[in-house]
Automatic annotation (TrEMBL):
<dbReference type="GO" id="GO:0050334">
    <property type="term" value="F:thiaminase activity"/>
</dbReference>
<dbReference type="GO" id="GO:0005829">
    <property type="term" value="C:cytosol"/>
</dbReference>
<dbReference type="InterPro" id="IPR016084">
    <property type="entry name" value="Haem_Oase-like_multi-hlx"/>
</dbReference>
<dbReference type="Pfam" id="PF03070">
    <property type="entry name" value="TENA_THI-4"/>
</dbReference>
<dbReference type="InterPro" id="IPR004305">
    <property type="entry name" value="Thiaminase-2/PQQC"/>
</dbReference>
<comment type="pathway">
    <text>Cofactor biosynthesis; thiamine diphosphate biosynthesis.</text>
</comment>
<feature type="domain" description="Thiaminase-2/PQQC">
    <location>
        <begin position="19"/>
        <end position="223"/>
    </location>
</feature>
<protein>
    <recommendedName>
        <fullName>aminopyrimidine aminohydrolase</fullName>
        <ecNumber>3.5.99.2</ecNumber>
    </recommendedName>
</protein>
<keyword id="KW-1015">Disulfide bond</keyword>
<dbReference type="InterPro" id="IPR050967">
    <property type="entry name" value="Thiamine_Salvage_TenA"/>
</dbReference>
<keyword id="KW-0784">Thiamine biosynthesis</keyword>
<dbReference type="GO" id="GO:0009228">
    <property type="term" value="P:thiamine biosynthetic process"/>
</dbReference>
<comment type="similarity">
    <text>Belongs to the thiaminase-2 family.</text>
</comment>
<keyword id="KW-0378">Hydrolase</keyword>
Amino acid sequence: MERKQEGGGGIGITETWLKKHTLLYKGATRHPFILSIRDGTVDLSSFKRWLGQDYLFVRNLVPFVADVLQKSSKDDKDGDMEVVLGGITSLSDELTWFKNEASKWDVMLHGIAPQKTNQDYCRFLESLMSTEVDYTVAITAFWAIETVYQKSFAFCLEDGSKTPAELIDTCQRWGNEGFGRYCQTLQGIANGCLEKATDDIRSKAEATFIRVLEFEIEFCNMSQGRD
Ligand SMILES: Cc1ncc(CN)c(N)n1
């Protein structure tokens, strides 16, 4: 899934947003739920709640990414479509992983009801599937969604982390280098689109980026039973 970094090689718009909204970004990628995995104090009932709810979330993420794919096919310049298609394959693997992991942890995936935060996040994804929503906004959201997980779980694998052995596989799922490169590719695509976008689309994309960060924080709160 290698692809050239877009945006002229300088600092892209998404990088400026990551700085501008650093508190929110840290709130999502250094959430107490993630920190508890990293320091080995994670409450297993929180982890199991997260596992079941995230499985449901990813099932809803697939149609959203299929819509991003559809949008990219109308606006394809540099092979974005192949990258997004690879993203759908990665989500398919993610769903298989959730099923295996759930049986390992005795979590019954059938019959789990989505909690309110999860429902709200999925409704937000649905709203981004409208034909009114520009490809630039949708691909920015997709980049942000994947990147929060990549940065969060990579942090749990860094030197000095005390992530329990039985959670290493979970962290590697999103924290591995290949997934990191894939997120950078998405970021390059988002930057390229944002550079060419009108001010109106750019500010809609920024608002969407902020909303994704807020939802990711709320999702972790929910996993800890704090919703
Ligand atoms: C809530 C959430 N955000 C992102 C991802 C990574 N696909 C996920 N599985 N769940």
